[in-house]
Backbone:
């Protein structure tokens, strides 16, 4: 199902014309109205009339997270304060948050792209959407809420946490669509199992899960444990919140709604655009946002655009699931390591549960990477050597994927902290 | 002949052993023998208790990972060289002992040793064939 075939399945030449037209518009708007951009473009020696093709985009300077911090809170707004209808912030816990502002039209846009995302997972007006993303400053809750309203589905604005009540309501209200972080779905499954409940008895049929990186193996686990179709949703506060991209039922990449969010992939070190298909940092230009348009915003998320058209009929470009973040990336003894790679290894081993924690320490001059993995009844033995064999086996698997040696340590069940929002997977104790 | 032992996974953290024994104590379960094997990271606590089912369930309810294994409780003459005689039988038969530990109580004039063999049925056959006494669960728990 496609919510808005006119734009989601627009013939590519027409889509590119539309993007160019909108790019010129947004460039002119920020040039006139946002002193930061006026300065930046003047320094780069580029004027609105210089934008003649989509290729000219690569001549424009980037906008970074630091630029947002420097202009905290409202310095990048392109409309008068009275036109702002809603303000959200990122869920970051350190320092000043990243701010996102919305005009009336921006909220309409948000509802529209979120309706597209929910339609990707088959949501219709007949569905009951249990929205377990946090409501509040975090964009997850209200973003999904607006999209579900746009479709005409029934929304249960339950927000995050209170897991037993989530399960009770899911059962009693007959929720058919679940929205939350992927790690929270597994926590729900665990609590439901403790309560003696079986997801095959529930009405859930699909879910849009995002706000943290996950893996293909984790999808298999979620689909099995919750008995539903699990699709990846992507977004970020700076751009609009959730609604930038979503997987369709083909499960072969996330469609970026590029009539509104123009993507590029760059080498995060050199800043140069990479050829189609290569992995690098995702850069997004918002083509239609009013309150806080961003030009070439560096997301710090690592992905690759997928060449070719999708079998679902949408023509908008797809990106691979987020492989990691440029700032999550751990450099261990000179090797780039993403927690998602470690997760992928753990998920494909039958011995392990998806609950893990990575601890990085510097011992002497060397970085040491330790992975805590919970022991379960499948792997437990009364013999030390068997348990040590399992530790060694996981170590070898991880080592062959990452190319560096790691230490695996078994932990007691449920001893690794469960998160009801974004899971804290990495503890970096190194002091630089 | 075989006796059931329960084993529990423990992280090497202060107070974990006390916690297990307190949980069992409160549930009215009597520990008859125990052995703790440890590495730098974790330990495995092995217990012979008077009520296996209840002990396993109680510990699982408290979130512990619990396993059940079949072991043999063997009578060993309580005199110098007594254990050596038994071990010689085991060695001559090529039986592999994974681990062993002593039972607290005596059985008449004999000590009792818990053996974990990798092939418990073969071990039972060999030991009985050599006239060694193997205690069954009922006898063991009532010692």
Residues:
């Amino acid at each position: 199902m496609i919510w808005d075939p006119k734009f989601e399945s627009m013939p590519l030449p027409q889509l590119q014309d539309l993007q160019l037209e909108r790019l010129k518009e947004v460039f002119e708007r920020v040039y006139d109205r946002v002193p930061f951009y006026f300065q930046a473009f003047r320094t780069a020696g580029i004027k609105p009339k210089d934008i003649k093709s989509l290729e000219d985009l690569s001549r424009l300077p980037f906008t970074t997270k630091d630029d947002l911090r420097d202009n905290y809170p409202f310095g990048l707004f392109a409309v008068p304060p009275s036109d702002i209808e809603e303000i959200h912030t990122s869920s970051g816990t350190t320092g000043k948050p990243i701010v996102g502002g919305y005009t009336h039209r921006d909220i309409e846009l948000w509802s529209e792209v979120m309706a597209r995302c929910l339609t990707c997972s088959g949501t219709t007006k007949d569905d009951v959407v249990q929205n377990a993303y946090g409501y509040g400053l975090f964009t997850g809750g209200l973003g999904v809420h607006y999209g579900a309203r746009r479709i005409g589905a029934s929304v249960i604005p339950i927000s995050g946490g209170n897991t037993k009540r989530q399960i009770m309501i899911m059962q009693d209200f007959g929720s058919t669509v679940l929205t939350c972080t992927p790690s929270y779905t597994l926590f729900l499954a665990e609590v439901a199992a403790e309560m003696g409940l079986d997801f095959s008895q529930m009405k859930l049929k699909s879910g849009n899960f995002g706000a943290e990186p996950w893996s293909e193996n984790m999808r298999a686990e979620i689909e099995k444990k919750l008995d539903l179709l699990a699709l990846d949703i992507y977004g970020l506060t700076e751009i609009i919140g959730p609604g930038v991209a979503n997987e369709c039922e083909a499960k072969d990449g996330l469609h970026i709604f590029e009539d509104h969010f123009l993507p590029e992939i760059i080498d995060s070190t050199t800043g140069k655009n990479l050829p189609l298909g290569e992995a690098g940092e995702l850069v997004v230009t918002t083509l239609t946002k009013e309150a806080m348009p961003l030009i070439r915003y560096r997301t710090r998320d690592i992905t690759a655009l997928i060449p070719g058209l999708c079998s679902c009929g949408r023509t908008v470009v797809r990106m691979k699931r987020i492989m990691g973040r440029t700032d999550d990336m751990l450099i261990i003894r000179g090797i780039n390591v993403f927690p998602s790679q470690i997760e992928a290894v753990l998920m494909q081993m039958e011995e392990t549960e998806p609950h893990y924690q990575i601890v990085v320490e510097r011992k002497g001059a060397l970085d040491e990477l330790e992975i805590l993995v919970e022991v379960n009844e499948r792997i437990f033995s009364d013999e030390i050597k068997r348990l040590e064999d399992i530790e060694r086996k996981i170590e070898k698997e991880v080592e062959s994927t990452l190319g560096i040696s790691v230490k695996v340590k078994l932990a007691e069940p449920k001893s690794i902290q469960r998160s009801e929002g974004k899971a804290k997977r990495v503890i970096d104790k190194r002091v630089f | 002949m075989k006796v059931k032992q329960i084993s529990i996974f423990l992280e090497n953290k202060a107070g974990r052993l006390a916690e297990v024994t307190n949980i069992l104590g409160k549930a009215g379960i009597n520990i008859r023998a125990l052995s703790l094997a440890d590495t730098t990271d974790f330990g495995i606590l092995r217990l012979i208790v008077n009520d296996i089912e209840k002990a396993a369930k109680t510990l699982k309810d408290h979130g512990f990972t619990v396993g059940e294994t079949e072991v043999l409780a063997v009578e060993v003459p309580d005199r110098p060289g007594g254990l050596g005689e038994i071990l010689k039988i085991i060695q001559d038969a090529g039986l592999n002992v994974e681990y062993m530990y002593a039972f607290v109580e005596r059985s008449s004039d004999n000590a009792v040793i818990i053996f974990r063999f990798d092939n418990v049925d073969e071990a039972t056959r060999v030991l009985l064939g050599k006239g060694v006494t193997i205690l069954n669960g009922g006898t063991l728990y009532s010692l």
Summary: The longest strand of chain A covers residues 366-374. Chain A has a mean pLDDT of 92.
